[in-house]
Amino acid sequence: MHFPFKILFAFFVAAFAFFPLTDSDIWWHLASARDFFENGLAEKDPFCWTPSRTPWINVHLFFQWIVYAVHSVAGAFGLVLLKSVAWGIVAFLWVLPCKRKIRLFEFSLAVLCAFIFRYALECRPIFLSLLFLGIFWNLLPQLLPPISKKYFLSAAILLFTQWIWIRTQGLFPLSCGLSAMAIFLSWNRMTKKSKIFSSCFLVILFSVPLWHFQGNYLFAYPFGLLDRLMGGSAASQIFALEIAENRAPSTLLLLHENTASMATLLLLVGIAAFFILKKKCSMEIWRIAWLLIAAFLAVFAERNLTIFFFPFVLLILWNPSFILLLRKIFLKIFPQKKAEFGNVIFIFAILILSFSAGSFLRSLPAYFEGKNFQAISQERVPMNAVIYLQNHPLLPNQNLFNDDRSGGYISWKIPAQKTFADGRFILKDSTFMANYLNFAKNPEAFFVAADSLQIYRALMPTRYISLWKNLDSAMQKKSDWKNVYRDDAYTIWDKTISAK
Fold first, then answer.
1. With pLDDT > 70 as the criterion, what percentage of the chain qualifies?
2. How many Cβ atoms sit within 10 Å of the Cβ of residue 55?
3. Whole-angstrom Cα distance, residue 298 to residue 109?
4. Dihedral of CA 261/251/129/206: which sign?
5. How far apart are the first and last CA of the chain?
């Protein structure tokens, strides 16, 4: 009876992922795909008028082709449906290896965690990274003792998966780490022949980036991501401290941001560490080791939440210690009620499932305006402000200033309009990032830069992102800046003609 629970868990995850597009980078990806089909693979930043690193490496190309094709056919609603189905498949792949009977209570805990973390299930390349890593999660046992007859077929599938992954997202080294861990932790059980085969597989797997055009740059790309995670350079320190999704869950908790999900994440990391250190986990040793690494990544940065969540769910479903611990606590409190423990756990499971499903259903009306599903979270992108930009274009020698979250959407809607910044901060150096953030904290620095950089227009969020409120307030006191547009979430300021 455990297999239906795996399918049901995937269904719940897919349902929880069915919410409007909230990640603003999706528009940058769509604009990049369109630019590729019109102009080929770009070697310089085609969107920003500010300097970007060269050569300009677009590691997300295959992801962009997929979302561009879906958007061309079904629009933004198609992207919502795509991410919903994709996250459901990811969930199924990660719990598929569970070999023991899944109980209702364990299943209900997994569903509750998925509900709490549902807003991390965005339309980002990470869902393909976790899908590809899920393939490794399921096929790597074919390469470990006892050696399967499907060894070479599984190895070929994994290498092909890696080839696709490399042009999908920069997290592709995760497969190398997982594979190396699984093989070396099984090394003592391998024959001499299987050791040779496994070593060759790892060498080929590590070399797959070199099979692509710009292979040397693709091979080096993940080191930049690692630097951003570990804070080794000036740019990475700014990136980790100032960009919300790169901050540690403990930092966000202290700042009272995403309090419920961050507190839950830290709690789950603690639970995982407890059961692993107490050796109360029945998963294979390489899966346990991977869970520890995923927990480490999640503690370092909030964006790694999903990397940790799915192997943690497998821990919940595979580990009978959760039920045994609860039973022990129950019997200490109610020693005479031993026979009633099963009924109590069943009732709790039903309540947890009812809460998760009911809360999700209550959230659905907020996604509709009349009978129409609102596929785009309008407070996350300047939808109406961009209409103003389309109707009031700048002159060729005039530059636009915008916040990073707006950049991709502007590039998608107005291809001719070059932006100041977008979500690809990995392509910018530390000086740019420091100046950009200083504009928000020190408005006078912006006004000086506007004169030297020929900035004649500024588009900023004013409600849901508080970073730019200081600059917006300072502009109200400047006679040479005029507020030409304002709505509930965004504002546009133009430098007046007299100041030119």
1. 91
2. 11
3. 20
4. negative
5. 74
Residue 466 pLDDT level (bands cut at 50, 70, 90): confident
d(CA 56, CA 353): 47
Question: Which secondary-structure segment (H or E) carries 353?
Answer: helix 341-363
| Lowest-confidence segment of 46-60, 196-210, 327-341, 370-384 by average pLDDT | 327-341
- The first and second tokens of residue 237, run together, are 């320190």
Residue 283, CA distances (Å) to 40, 104, 114, 131, 469 in order: 46, 19, 21, 20, 50
Beta partners for 369?
372
- What does the block give as tokens for 153? 């077929």
423 near 124, Cβ under 8 Å?
no
pLDDT digits (tens, 9 = 90+) for 116-175: 999 999 999 999 999 999 999 999 999 998 877 889 999 999 999 999 999 999 889 999
Token pair for 386? 């961009």
Task: Name the amino acid, one letter, at 461.
Answer: P
| Calpha distance 77→375 (Å, rounded) | 5
The 3-state DSSP class for residue 414 equals coil
- The crossing angle, in degrees rounded to 10, of helices 126-139 and 173-184 is 20
Tell me how far CA of residue 204 lies from CA of 156, 180, 209, 428, in angstroms.
Answer: 11, 12, 10, 32
Phi, psi dihedrals of residue 91, rounded to the nearest 5° = -60, -45
Predicted confidence (pLDDT) per residue in 200-235, tens digit: 999 999 999 999 888 888 888 777 666 555 555 555
- Two tokens, residue 442: 């020190």
Asked if the model's pLDDT at residue 343 lies above 90, the reply is no
**pLDDT digit string, tens, across residues 272-292:** 888 888 777 778 899 999 999
Instruction: Give the pLDDT confidence of 53-111 residue by residue, as tens digits.
Output: 878 888 999 999 999 999 999 999 999 999 999 999 999 999 999 888 888 888 998 99
The secondary structure of the chain in percent helix, strand, coil, rounded to multiples of 5, reads: 65, 5, 25
Q: Are 209 and 166 in contact (CB under 8 A)?
A: yes
Partners of 287 in the beta sheet?
none
Strand order in the sheet with 399-402: 399-402, 455-461, 490-495, 481-486
Tokens of 239: 């990136």
With CA atoms as reference, report the closest residue to 30 among 47, 52, 13, 50: 47
Q: Does 141 sit behind a cis peptide bond, omega within 30 degrees of 0 on the bond before it?
A: no
d(CA 257, CA 249): 9
HSE-CB for 486 with a 13 A CA cutoff = 8
- Residues found in the chain: 500
| Token pair in block for residue 183 | 């093989």
pTM for this entry = 0.91
DSSP state for residue 117 in the 8-state scheme: T
**What single-letter DSSP state applies at residue 416?**
T
